[in-house]
Amino acid sequence: MANIKNLQMWNTICTDARISISKSMLGLRTTANYIPSNSVLDVKTIEYSAADGERLKRLLTSPRENLEKAIGDFHPTQTANGNFMAELCVSRDGAFLAVQLFQFVLMKYEPTTDVLIYEGAEARIVKQLLA
Q1: Rounded mean pLDDT of the chain?
Q2: CA torsion sign, 8 to 11 to 14 to 18?
Q3: Tens-digit pLDDT profile for residues 24-34
Q4: N or C, which terminus of the chain has less Cβ within 10 Å?
Q5: Tell me, what DSSP letter sits at residue 28?
Q6: Smallest Cα–Cα separation from 102: which of 91, 90, 88, 92?
Q7: What are phi and psi of 16, to 5 degrees?
Q8: DSSP per residue, 35-84
Q9: pLDDT tens sequence across 82-120
Q10: Which candidate, 47, 60, 45, places its Cα nearest to that of 122?
Q11: What's the predicted TM-score (pTM) here?
């Protein structure tokens, strides 16, 4: 599992009014909570193939009105050393999800989407797609 402070979207998560950040006494551990439900955020990174990454990019940047219909039966497959990588912050209750997609270009992952935030039913739909 990734450390939330190591994510490239860390600054965006820190400044989001829906998220509270707390540190342990010695500052060795940082915890983020989704304020409306007081649910802890778990983070992870997932790598995808070029084909799955391109399709995922189109889905994440498309209008959200028909999100579930647009996804259909698509389920991207995790792969080692993938051409695309997704950073995810997901509340344990599934009510909040933040995702940013990156593509491997010139020996490092470059953002291909902004940090996208989903809440409620949309968060649960996207969580099923990605996790």
Answers
A1: 91
A2: negative
A3: 777 678 899 99
A4: N
A5: -
A6: 88
A7: -75, 125
A8: TTTTEEEEEEEEEE-HHHHHHHHHHHHS-STTHHHHHTT--PPB-TT-SE
A9: 999 999 999 999 999 999 999 999 999 999 999 999 999
A10: 60
A11: 0.90
